[in-house]
Amino acid sequence: MAAETTQPGVPVQPTGDTLVDIRNLKVHFPIKGGLLGRAVAAVKAVDGVDLQVKRGEVLGLVGESGCGKSTLGRAVLQLIKPTAGEVYFNGEELTRLSTGALRQRRANMQMIFQDPFSSLDPRYTVGRVVAEPLENFNRGDRTERLNRVKELLQVVGLNPNYVNRYPHEFSGGQRQRIGIARALALNPQFIVADEPISALDVSIQAQVLNLLLDLQNQFNLTYLFIAHNLAAIKHISNRVAVMYLGHIVEIGAAEEVYNNPQHPYTIALLSASPLADPDLERQRKRIILVGDVPSPVNPPAGCPFNPRCWRAQAICREVAPPLEAKRPGHLAACHFPGPEGQ
Amino acid sequence: MAALNPPASGFATRLGALWRFTTLNRKVSVGIIVIAFFVLMATVGPLLVRQDPTAFTEDLLQPPSPAHWLGTTQNGQDVFAQVVDGARDSVALGFIVGILTTAISVVVGVVSGYFGGVIDELFSLVTNVFLVLPTLPLAILLAAFLPYKGPLTLGIVIGVTGWSWGARVLRSQTLSMRGRDFVEAAQARGESSFRIVFFEILPNETALVAAELLGTVIYCILAEAGLEFLGLGNLSSVSWGTMFFFSQNSDALLLGAWWWFLPPGICIAVLGAALALVNFGIDEIANPRLRTERGQKPSLLKRALGIPAAPQLQEETA
């Protein structure tokens, strides 16, 4: 797969175990105003993100609504053109590829969408929905494609005889399975799952989550798993990245981040998520953040979290803390890191 | 359901789909039968009528009789022959211009909606200009000043003035489609813009396009009749519009010669109604949700004969 012809002028790097290497990625959406419709300001949805996704891992990306996690996922796949920064996929810089070359690379990176009701074309039968990527890349003839579709439906736990049904005949969980089958059709290496379970019933969430994990083992997939459900992220991820206002504020192994959160935002986020054990739930101290998320049009100077942080000092309002190792393999962007109560 | 039927060949499937559409419900069936009747009348009708529609006879302004089924005009021309012969001009022009006009609005609307940016600005500007132009006066002006009078002129006039509304509607619909996840999913799997526009977005707008097509055909037939009524068409040709023109010129209404202007008027009204009836069915066929509801209600014939509806097929089990 990596031996596809490379485009001249596009840097290629040896990759080792890194599949996706995101460097200083920025996505700014212009706000047009005035008589001439010139850009007067920009929504800094993603504002300088460095992130590496290793081969075969599940990297969970958490953060509250509007922090830029979906935008980051889409920018990695070049569905949104990044304003600045680089994305290396298999060592190849995606942002500088021509449209045609990028189209070829798309077979290797797919997406699972949040809303299974709008992500399937209502006029296509399930068979066509899943066969569409195969048709698009001219894989196989009609019968081979049909067999592949049936195989894929079986893989995601659906009856292969459903090929002639329409999406509206399925439940939310089944539709999400169809979306997953479609994403798997081309045997991709990398899948961005954009909140794949948040639109589903709680009873179905675990099923889909476990299906995603099974598929990952079976096909050696790499996921960028975007969610705001902390428990789901903990269940599925090897590593977790926490995002706040367009920045990665903390990243590390999942257990490490959950047990030893360094950034105050992560601590607050974890304290907001309920524990299953009622005794522990009653004992634990909850941190209620004051204020709202600042506008990404006009982010605060210094650390983006400083207006809501109870540890903020003068330096936080002036100097943006770099994302650096606070513990082995555990990075955080904070001047005063460490778990609460020490 | 489909699992029970062996996969049919492409052509047979198309034919089957057409048949299912025709028998979808009574509205569509009636509409299609009426349209087919007029199309037949326009194509083979003139071959079956003995009289020459333009030939003058001795029978001036005669009411309907066995010799002249729909009476005669001031000049003794046979009205029935004129109605049948006129159908050719009216129906052919209506359908051809309707299809071309719809094609223009589809291309302009979908392209500007999907691509946005400068293309959209440009197309929208042109669309807006044509939207605010008063179409009938413009059509009258154009038809009056263009040197050549005939179906081509009328077609151009109607096409130029008729496409903007549909383009505007399709543009809005495309804008909404473009934001749907399944379009983004198509982009994510590397589909070309052409494929996305014509295989993902446009099929979801079938109902709108078809409704617009039928609406435009009605508009074209009416506009043609209207312009010809005003004497702006080719008066030496026979069509429903020129029949109006000559009956008005000869004071048919004052003379009580209802058989002269009523038949073409009824033809236009019935054809328009038939097109509208088919339009009702299109929404049903274009929306897969409504498609599966079929076959549960027994047909009128079956109900009359007391045959119960076909039992619902059981879900096949895994």
Task: Describe the protein.
- The complex is a heterodimer of chains A (342) and B (318).
- With 342 residues, chain A is an alpha/beta fold.
- In chain A, 30% of the residues lie in helices and 23% in strands.
- Chain A has eleven helices and twelve strands.
- Chain A has helices spanning 69-76, 99-105, 126-136, 142-155, 172-184, 202-219, 230-236, 254-259, 264-272, 278-283, 314-318; strands at 18-33, 38-54, 58-62, 84-89, 92-93, 109-112, 190-194, 222-226, 239-244, 247-253, 324-327, 330-332.
- In chain A, helix 4 (142-155) packs across helix 5 and helix 5 runs parallel beside helix 6.
- The longest helix of chain A has 18 residues, at 202-219.
- Chain A is globular, with a radius of gyration of 21 Å.
- Chain B has a single domain (44-317), classed as MetI-like fold.
- Chain B starts with 9 loop residues before the first helix and ends in a 13-residue tail after the last helix.
- Chain B contains 15 helices and no strands.
Quick tags:
heterodimer; A: 342 residues; eight-stranded mixed β-sheet; four-stranded antiparallel β-sheet; B: 318 residues; mainly alpha; MetI-like fold; 15 helices; 68% helix; globular; disordered C terminus
Helices and strands, with pairings:
The complex is a heterodimer of chains A (342) and B (318).
Chain A: E1 18-33, E2 38-54, E3 58-62, H1 69-76, E4 84-89, E5 92-93, H2 99-105, E6 109-112, H3 126-136, H4 142-155, H5 172-184, E7 190-194, H6 202-219, E8 222-226, H7 230-236, E9 239-244, E10 247-253, H8 254-259, H9 264-272, H10 278-283, H11 314-318, E11 324-327, E12 330-332
Parallel strand pairs in A: 3-8, 3-9, 6-7, 7-8
Antiparallel strand pairs in A: 1-2, 1-4, 4-5, 9-10, 10-12, 11-12
Helix pairs in contact in A: 3-4, 3-5, 4-5, 5-6
Chain B: H1 10-22, H2 26-43, H3 45-48, H4 79-115, H5 117-132, H6 135-145, H7 151-162, H8 164-178, H9 181-188, H10 193-201, H11 206-229, H12 240-249, H13 258-286, H14 288-291, H15 300-305
